[in-house]
């Protein structure tokens, strides 16, 4: 019975991870027409996050106890999982090709494995490692990294910053599923994932407001239309797509999938975002796929399947907390809350 429920949980987690990848993958297809219509990329990012934050305000109010109980988790999620990933990514593509930036950012699954293996000192399955290698290699074909690389150290470092923030997304989502201890030393319930997302979006919107400076945006563009493969689509409809599907739905399904699977497995499945984005661009924007991209997409799918088919190994003892300190596996979130703390 327990094995059956575990299988069902992993199956549900895989389905949610795929839905999250699909939702995230559609963001670029909806955002590109808005950018081509005249909106600055950072302004599109700000509209995306701020709009989602407004929608999630009622959820944030319902889970307002999180501000007192998990302040570090909320701030970390907003800084890394929301604002950091997008800010670093858009900064990097201003200096290096988009394909290279995307490939570097999606080195995150490999970095997650490194975090689990060397920081938490937990074993990782060979299948998960093989899946990461296949996914990254296939992703190189999907984005056609050989199309041109002008070495720019700062641009590559910015893309690596996006990858590190992506790691924060998976690790914080996983840690957020652990309850830690309450003020009396009793084991507390884990914070509600949707509440964490709501406050993460609020924090991310605040940070991006400083970076994007939306008061200089041409708001009249939102009342017009944008071209999508020869057709005119209302700008507000594309913005609604970005906010509701590519942000609210994407983050909710993504965080829940991490808790049902594991950071390393969910991270590999998230690589499908590039495949989905390329496929949607083919259908909706007329950007055709080449043979190497089709092959690369198949390799990414294969890597994701291999990784998700391997059950993650639970920690067999204390998890290293750094600086010579260790805490029990269930106490990682408590240690995170004490101050150590995707597009």
Commentary on this structure:
The chain has 343 residues and is mainly alpha-helical. 69% of the residues lie in helices and 4% in strands. The chain has 15 helices and four strands. The strands form two sheets. Strands 1-2 form a two-stranded antiparallel sheet. It has a two-stranded antiparallel sheet with strand order 3-4. Helix 6 (98-105) runs parallel beside helix 9 and helix 9 (153-175) packs across helix 11 (235-260). It is globular. Mean pLDDT is 76; it is low at 181-185 and 311-341.
Keywords:
two-stranded antiparallel ribbon, 69% helix, two-stranded antiparallel sheet, globular, mainly alpha, 343 residues, 15 helices
The count of DSSP E runs of length 2 or more, i.e. the number of strands, is: 4
Helix content: 55-70%
* Largest sheet strand order: 1-2
Question: Which structural class do you get from the secondary structure elements?
Answer: mainly alpha
Q: In whole angstroms, how far apart are the ends?
A: 39 Å
Rg calculated over all Cα atoms: 20 Å
Report the total helices. Answer: 15
The residue-averaged pLDDT reads 76
β-strand percent reads under 5%
Shape: globular
* Largest sheet entry: 2 strands, antiparallel
Order of helices and strands: HHHHHHHHHHEEHHHHEEH
Unreliable parts:
181-185, 311-341
Walk me through the topology.
Blueprint: H1 2-36, H2 41-55, H3 57-62, H4 65-69, H5 71-92, H6 98-105, H7 108-119, H8 126-142, H9 153-175, H10 193-212, E1 225-228, E2 231-234, H11 235-260, H12 263-270, H13 272-285, H14 291-308, E3 319-322, E4 325-327, H15 332-337
Helix pairs in contact: 1-11, 1-13, 2-5, 2-10, 2-11, 5-9, 5-10, 6-9, 7-9, 7-12, 8-14, 9-11, 9-12, 11-12, 12-14
């Amino acid at each position: 019975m327990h094995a059956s429920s575990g299988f069902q949980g992993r199956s549900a987690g895989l389905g949610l991870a795929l839905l999250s990848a699909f939702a995230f993958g559609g963001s670029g297809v909806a955002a590109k027409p808005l950018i081509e219509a005249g909106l600055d990329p950072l302004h599109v990012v700000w509209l995306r996050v701020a709009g989602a934050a407004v929608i999630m305000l009622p959820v944030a109010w319902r889970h307002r106890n999180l501000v007192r109980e998990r302040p570090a988790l909320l701030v970390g999620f907003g800084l890394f999982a929301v604002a950091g990933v997008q800010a670093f990514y858009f900064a990097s593509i201003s200096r290096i090709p988009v394909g290279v930036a995307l490939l570097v950012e999606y080195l995150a699954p490999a970095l997650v494995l490194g975090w689990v293996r060397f920081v938490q000192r937990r074993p990782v399955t060979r299948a998960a490692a093989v899946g990461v290698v296949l996914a990254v290699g296939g992703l190189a074909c999907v984005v056609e990294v050989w199309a041109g690389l002008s070495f720019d150290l700062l641009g590559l470092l910015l893309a690596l910053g996006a990858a590190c923030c992506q790691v924060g997304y998976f690790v914080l989502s996983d840690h957020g599923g652990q309850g830690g201890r309450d003020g009396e030393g009793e084991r507390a319930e884990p914070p509600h994932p949707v509440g964490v997302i709501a406050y993460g979006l609020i924090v991310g919107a605040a940070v991006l407001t400083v970076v994007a400076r939306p008061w200089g945006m041409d708001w009249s563009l939102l009342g017009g239309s944008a071209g999508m493969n020869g057709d005119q689509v209302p700008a507000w409809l594309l913005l609604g797509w970005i906010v509701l599907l590519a942000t609210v739905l994407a983050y909710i399904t993504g965080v829940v999938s991490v808790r049902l699977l594991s950071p390393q497995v969910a991270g590999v499945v998230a690589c499908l975002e590039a495949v989905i984005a390329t496929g949607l661009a083919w259908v909706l924007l007329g950007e055709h796929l080449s043979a190497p991209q089709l092959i690369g997409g198949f390799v990414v799918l294969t890597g994701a399947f291999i990784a998700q088919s391997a059950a993650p190994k639970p920690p067999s003892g204390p998890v290293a907390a750094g600086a010579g300190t260790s805490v029990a596996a269930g106490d990682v979130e408590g240690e995170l809350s004490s101050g150590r703390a995707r597009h």
